[in-house]
Write a structure and sequence with these properties.
The structure holds two protein chains of two kinds. Helix content of chain A is 27%, strand content 31%. By secondary structure, chain A is an alpha/beta fold. The chains are: A alpha/beta, B alpha/beta. The structure holds flavin-adenine dinucleotide (FAD) (2 copies), iron/sulfur cluster and FE2/S2 (inorganic) cluster.
């Protein structure tokens, strides 16, 4: 059993939850993830490490409610417990010295680029950060990212905050202005990561992305997390989650993520019937992360 | 009955195992055989002629005193019979159900030559169930604490056996298990209809009662390495991490939706209870036309699971012929009875999608048997131009597993072979790292429950010696 230390509603469907996992955070590195199981009959769901505090023994996950399990997670109150938090899983992100190191976080992907940015800066990089979301309410970690990066650019699709436009617009502008990064780590929705790779490819900028395939164990045992990288099948959990974005088959990833859409809908509908007002934190929540 | 002469006893018919009828069981996940009644068990036991030089014992990888326990069954001493088996095999309820008796003890039984062999497996299962169901399981005497600590990585049959043996000797024992439930393949791989999970749980609970500590959701190699376990004052470590990495065919279309590894398919259904979706949260494809590739126990488990999930056509696709199939004879027989279709001497060439990323058809080629290969089995050779297609919406690849590199990769000084199996001294099961022992599938590659348990026995003896001789 793993204790929930803190839990906040960030805006729309986004939440920040903090777990007490003292042994795990001692080992966790930027880019790694954990697998959570909320209830006895529950699914095992992977979640990126958004932040970690080895002193407090706490690990932060930023998540979006999109189905049954994340909806159930949103009902948890501080002091309550989940069944398991396994990890740290996957390989750490490349955060060694590259020179101009850029992180691009889109939506919920802002969470995992944050510890990578911190570490990359510690390692002597000049860190550029671009964070973006559909609208202002979906942005978070701006202050944290400002601290972690040398330069931070914020944008929203609808212009409700920061620059109006996509993260790729900012990337292009920075390149045009002579700030071509030596390395990009892009994490976010699949279409965003694909667009970043399409933008960086003509400039030959090494670009890594973090994949989010469906997983079960997260240890290489099931192969549910297969992705194609340069035509070769890799396991997202043990060979990744970060891969060279210029070699990754994004369309296959998108298609594989759709495998259970119908059943997931069914599961969510059943859950909502049983628990009509599941988002228990909405009212009492603190707005800031 | 013991008044009957040997010759008469040999001629008694083998007691048939009562089981669910095929058309009923193929739509439920309950165990197929019901088990013997005490009367049946005694009748079956009375067939054993108590050979002077029992071949069955030699056929058993852990040399269970088979005529000894059967004699106790004949006398109605069922719990004692179970304890007799446990002197050499701590998992009789499990082994009675999953051991390939037809290749081990029963094939060499003296009766097998002229008649049918004694149903050793059925009897083993009966006595273990009797003992458990009647709460006759006795906690063994535990030696006074030795002050030695042993860590066990992996809770499959190898790890469970080591734990049981070492706790009795007075050592402090902790099992680390990556998944959220202990049992290894016994819980995530082998389905309920063949091995009820309650039985595995009872074995683990028994170990806990004796004082074994079980830490689930703890991945060694990630949360801590073997070296770090030694830093936490463990005197010896046993690695029983199994052969958990699924092999794929490496043919076009394998990443289409609907193509699973057997590990994924069975883990969803067994460990995550996807057959009970949406009451359990994990989904699984309920295919209409399901093809399972392979001919081992794993393939039989997957194809029979598919049937129970509602498949109209469930196929086994195997590149050799039925005689070469490595699965237990009982499972092949059960599968046939349930209406599984066997496409033998057939190999898939590619998977074809429906344009939306989902598998829709599979192209296969017919095979013929050529010269024997390294394994001694005839090598299957494709017959050119014999390609054909079948309609499938779900495919399960069950062509074997490789060893998971996680622990070997994070343990400097521990040697492995080219397949990643840990190299050990076969007498002691000690690896090239002093104090690190290993056994089960991580050493042998995918094998059997009893071989894993047998390796655990050997390792436990050597670990005991090792820790007691340490300063
Ligand atoms: C390495 C990794 C890191 C991730 N990090 C985060 C994160 O930091 N924050 C966040 O909000 N989400 C993250 N995800 C995605 C997250 O795991 C899914 O959103 C979650 O599993 C959805 O579960 P659900 O039951 O609420 O929704 P469901 O209704 O079950 O599924 C909704 C969608 O989520 C995806 N999904 C479903 N089950 C799984 C599964 N077992 N594994 C992976 N994806 C699944 C599928 O695309 C599915 O269509 C990450 C995924 C991976 C693989
Ligand atoms: C579907 C299927 C059906 C089978 N049917 C039969 C049968 O009928 N009869 C038979 O005799 N054999 C059968 N087998 C084979 C048999 O199950 C195995 O040979 C046996 O389970 C091997 O035991 P083990 O203890 O070596 O490992 P496993 O049972 O594989 O257990 C290993 C355990 O270690 C854990 N682990 C792995 N890495 C780590 C880590 N880094 N940290 C912590 N824990 C870790 C795993 O999660 C797992 O729980 C079958 C196998 C399968 C897959
Ligand atoms: S070989 Fe058969 S008949 Fe002889 S002791 Fe063993 S089980 Fe009995
Ligand atoms: S999640 Fe099972 S192998 Fe990657």
């Amino acid at each position: 059993m793993v204790k929930v230390l803190e839990h906040y509603h960030l805006g729309e469907n986004n939440y920040k939850i903090v777990f007490e996992v003292p042994e795990l955070v001692k080992k966790a590195q930027p880019g790694q993830f954990v697998v959570l199981r909320i209830s006895e009959e529950g699914e095992r769901i992977p979640m990126s490490i958004g932040d970690m505090d080895p002193e407090k023994g706490s690990l932060t996950v930023i998540y979006q409610v999109i189905g049954k399990t994340t909806a159930l997670m949103a009902t948890l109150k501080p002091g309550e417990h989940i069944m398991d938090c396994v990890g740290p899983l996957g390989n750490p992100s490349h955060v060694d010295k590259k020179g101009k190191y850029m992180v691009i976080g889109g939506g919920i992907g802002i969470a995992p680029v944050h510890p990578a940015a911190k570490k990359a800066r510690e390692n002597g990089n000049e860190v550029f950060g671009i964070i973006g979301a559909r609208t202002k309410d979906l942005l978070f970690f701006e202050d944290e990212m400002r601290k972690a990066c040398d330069h931070l650019y914020v944008c929203t699709d609808d212009g409700s905050y920061g620059e109006k436009g996509f993260v790729t617009d900012v990337l292009k502008r920075l390149i045009d202005e002579g700030n071509k990064p030596d390395f990009i780590l892009a994490i976010g929705p699949v279409p965003m990561m694909k667009a970043v790779c399409a933008t960086s490819k003509p400039y030959d900028i090494e670009t890594w992305v973090s994949v989010n395939p469906i997983m079960i164990d997260g240890t290489g045992m099931c192969g549910a997390c297969r992705v194609s990288v340069g035509g070769i099948t890799k396991f997202g959990c043990v060979d990744g989650p970060d891969f060279d974005g210029h070699l990754l088959d994004f369309d296959e990833l998108t298609s594989r993520l759709r495998m259970y859409h119908q059943m997931e809908k069914e599961s969510m509908e059943q859950f909502e019937k049983k628990q009509p007002c599941y988002i228990g934190l909405k009212e009492s929540s603190k707005k800031s992360a | 009955m013991s008044e009957l002469s040997k010759a008469e006893r040999m001629k008694l018919p083998r007691q048939a195992m009562p089981e669910q009828k095929p058309d009923i069981r193929k739509v439920n996940f309950k165990e197929v055989p019901h088990g013997y009644t005490p009367e049946q068990a005694m009748a079956e036991a009375s067939r054993c002629i108590e050979c002077k030089k029992p071949k069955c014992i030699a056929g058993c990888p852990v040399e269970v005193d088979i005529p000894g326990f059967i004699r106790l069954v004949m006398d109605g001493k069922f719990a004692e019979a179970s304890r007799k088996i446990k002197e050499t095999n701590s998992l009789p309820a499990i082994c009675g159900r999953v051991c390939p008796q037809e290749e081990q003890c029963e094939v060499v039984c003296t009766l097998a030559k002229k008649f049918t062999p004694v149903a050793i497996g059925n009897l083993e299962r009966f006595v273990a169930d009797y003992e458990r169901d009647n709460n006759l399981t006795e906690l063994p005497e535990i030696a006074p604490p030795t002050g030695k600590k042993v860590a066990i990585v992996g809770s499959g049959p190898a790890g469970l056996t080591v734990a049981g043996d070492l706790i009795k000797l007075g050592h402090q024992v902790t099992i680390f298990e990556a998944l959220h439930k202990p049992g290894g393949v016994l819980v995530y791989g082998i389905p309920e209809f063949r091995l009820p999970k309650e039985i595995v749980k009872a074995e683990v609970d028994y170990l806990k009662q004796m004082g074994v500590e079980v830490k689930t959701s703890h991945i060694v190699g990630k949360l801590d390495t073997i070296d770090e376990l030694f830093d936490q004052d463990y005197d010896a470590i046993f690695i029983g991490t199994g052969a958990g990495l699924p092999n794929f065919m490496r043919i076009p279309g394998e990443n289409l939706n609907g193509v699973y590894s057997a590990n994924e398919y069975l883990t969803r259904s067994n460990l995550m209870k996807a057959y009970d979706f949406p009451n359990a949260d994990t989904p699984i494809a309920r295919g209409k036309n399901v093809a399972v590739l392979g001919g081992g126990n794993t393939a039989m488990d997957a194809v029979r699971t598919a049937l129970r999930l509602g498949a109209e056509n469930a196929y086994i696709i195997y590149r050799r012929s039925q005689v070469e199939m490595p699965a237990r004879a009982a499972e092949i027989h059960h599968a046939e009875e349930e209406g599984i279709q066997f496409l033998l001497l057939t190999n898939p060439v590619r998977f074809i999608g429906n344009g939306e990323g989902r598998v829709e058809r599979m192209e296969c080629i017919r095979m013929e048997l050529g010269e024997p290969d390294d394994s001694g089995r005839c090598r299957p050779v494709p017959i050119e131009g014999s390609n054909f297609e079948i309609e499938v919406d779900t495919v399960v690849v069950a062509i074997g597993n490789s060893s998971n590199p996680l622990v070997p990769r994070t343990t400097p000084g521990m040697d492995t072979n080219k397949w990643g199996n840990i190299l050990v001294n076969e007498e002691t099961m000690e690896s090239s790292r002093p104090g690190v022992f290993a056994g089960g599938d991580i050493v042998t590659g995918g094998a059997t429950v009893i071989l894993a348990a047998g390796a655990g026995k050997k390792a436990a003896r050597a670990i005991h010696e090792y820790v007691m001789n340490k300063e």
